[in-house]
Amino acid sequence: MTAASIPHTGVAEHSRSRFVLSDKAKYSIKLGLAIAITYGLALRANWMSPTWAAIAVAMIGQPGHGQSLYKGMLRAIGTLIAFFSGLFILMLFPQDRWLTLVATSPFLGYFTYKMKGQNSYLWFVAAFVTPMIVMAGPAQPGHAFEFAAYRTLETLMGIGVWALVSIFLWPAMDELLATQQKILTAFRESATDGDSAGVPFALQEQEAQLVKQVGSFIDLVSAETYEVRGVRGAWHRLHAASQSFLHVSSRIQSGMSDVERIPLSSVLPAVPDFLAELEARLTEARSLLGGASQARPCQDEALEVDADAFGALGHFARAGAVAGRAELAALDAHTRTIVECALEIREDKRAASTPSADTTPAKLRGPLALLPLDHDQLMGAIIAVATMWGGTLIWIYVNPPGHVSWFQFPTNLVLVALLNPQMRF
Q: Helices (DSSP H) in 18-143: which residue ranges?
């Protein structure tokens, strides 16, 4: 073993011993950071009640939600829908609590009924923010608009802070594939000119971190939408292939010093083209995950051995060349798997966006059988409205600790349960 190989061995040992945060720790850090930033901004601006912004972060910051700008956009739209809905209700009945409750019921029922499909989270936000705004009527009818405006502004701020923290604190699969592309580029340059430097340590460390982060990210996102949950197996195979890519690339990097004076391309002339093909595959996988159509299939690049160059090597160098060829063949298999999984995920997205031939909702019984309604969604809407009425009656006639919160929080818990039917409460 040469002295040049010792640092690379240390890199591998360091990667294995690196401290890794658990999924619960990551979620706790994100949620705590988002609430702290939201509180700080609201207090600095001297807004009406910073608690509202913190409540918005706590409600929207469920595990599995808030992982994309698209989700942030849905929350913002849902909040604006709730803002105008709440003001409309308060305009009709600013001082009558019973009529306000009656008028809120169809809005809450409709928003709850719409909590299905790709934009379910938009309607969830509209459903839980509307009662928050409506509560300004019975409490402070003269300041209803100011109350609703501040409520909406602080909720939007909480949404924005949570979305930014979620997005920029831990990246996703695209960055992992981009990092592995850079690793292949470094290998190709080293194989061509015989440079033993190979992959920079920082790039290796970044790859290891992203593989771990993406693994925890998949289960969170699969709980977010039914589309992702339907291809969760493909996402896990994609992650497993990327993880195997990490192990193989680490072994290649550790062994590069053993053949530092022999450009691998002299023994395997097709290595530059071979590695360029692997890079193109990862580019194709990133494009497929972005929603594009398949542009090119995987090409075959044979790693033929130059017999004369191979025979001129010593025994130790020959062993290194054989091992390197085997590792490159492993990279070939793993990148093929990555592209296949990306294509499966992309095709599932395309199929999900195509309307199904059978769009008949679940059958109802009795007089409601004539209505084209979804039975499960209708029952969820009824349960949410009934919960709001029950909590309001407890607040008015019993008035336990919490007071006006009985109008809102029991309904919010029901909405969370309806949004996550796969979870057991």
A: 23-44, 50-60, 69-92, 97-113, 120-134, 136-139
* Cβ-contact 172, 214 below 8 angstroms: yes
From residue 209, give the alpha-carbon distance in Å to each of 171, 172, 213, 249: 10, 11, 6, 14
* In the predicted structure, residue 57 carries a pLDDT above the cut 60: yes
What is the amino acid identity at position 115?
M
| C-alpha–C-alpha distance, residues 80 and 348, integer Å | 32
- Structure confidence by residue, pLDDT tens digits, 197-222: 667 778 888 888 778 777 766 665 55
Distances in Å between the alpha carbon of 45 and those of 30, 42, 48? 23, 5, 9
- Of 155, 216, 215, nearest to 30 (Cα)? 216
pLDDT band at 229 (very low <50, low <70, confident <90, very high): low
Return d(Cα 407, Cα 86) in angstroms, integer: 14
Listed residue (172, 165, 168, 162) closest to 217, CA to CA: 172
pTM (2 d.p.)? 0.49
Closest CA to 245 of 328, 306, 189: 328
Residue type, 205: E
Instruction: Name the more confident of 412 and 3.
Output: 412
Cα within 13 Å of Cα(410), Cβ side = 18
User: Closest Cα to residue 253, out of 182, 336, 316, 172?
Assistant: 182
What is the distance of C-alpha 198 from the center of its chain? Answer: 32
DSSP line for 295-364: --PPPP------HHHHHTS-HHHHHHHHHHHHHHHHHHHHHHHHHHHHHHHHHHHHHHHSPPS--PPPPP
Q: Which of 160, 165, 133 is nearest to 48 (CA)?
A: 133
